[in-house]
Amino acid sequence: MKARILYGAILLTLSSLFFAACQKDQSANSDYTTETARHSDDQSRFSNEVDAAANDVNITVESAAGFAGRTENIQSFICDATVAVDTMSNPRTITITYNGTNCLGNRTRTGVIVVSMAQGVRWKNAGAVINVTYQNFKVTRLSDNKSITLNGTQSFTNVSGGLLINLPVLNTITHTMTSNNMSVTFDDNSQRTWQVARQRVFTYNNG
Fold first, then answer.
1. Residue 93, pLDDT above cutoff 60
2. Band of the pLDDT at 23, cuts 50, 70, 90?
3. What is the CA radius of gyration of the chain?
């Protein structure tokens, strides 16, 4: 039996706590206002793309029975990526390979995200942890051809337990995302290192 996760009916990320500290690898003398505006845009792009990637991770993890802790796999789809699941290795892995297809309308994505989870862990359980590694994950904004490339590892924790597909019953689910080594490379080859501590609270909106 096939089922489809209807994430459109689930309102995501209604509450979040975000901390991002960056260290610039290059110094330059520039107008403070211009620099502040650019930094704000950079942080917004980083935050938005990490959120979008996290949604992809949630979809793939919850679709794989061996990761989610469910009885069967369910159908999932990422329009610009292929997904390979390995449940025999330790840690188990899900590899998401982005192919650069312009199916999102406003940006393209290339590179790889590898999700790893230790044997015996089930994502539906409270306190379950997965590691999410970005390997040259590049997002190009089509409006101005500006890009960011992410490398590094984040840890996701299912603080409350539960799966998003069961959100209508659970009402809220809380995840945290942490990292201290996210490297971000911009299209001008400047680099920053971001430290992230974020809480995402998923709330059902009766839809």
1. yes
2. low
3. 18
Residues 62/112, Cβ–Cβ less than 8 Å: no
CB atoms within 10 A of CB 184: 22
- The Cα–Cα gap between 58 and 78 comes to 11
pTM of this prediction exceeds 0.90 = no
Q: Under a CB-based contact definition with an 8 Å cutoff, are residues 104 and 81 in contact?
A: no
Of 190, 202, 187, 176, residue with least CA distance to 50 = 176
Q: Which residue do the tokens 């025999």 mark?
A: 88
| 11-24 and 81-86 beta bridge pairing | unpaired
> What does the angle CA 71 – CA 76 – CA 79 come to, to the nearest 5 degrees?
165
Q: Are strands 128-141 and 107-117 parallel, antiparallel or unpaired?
A: antiparallel
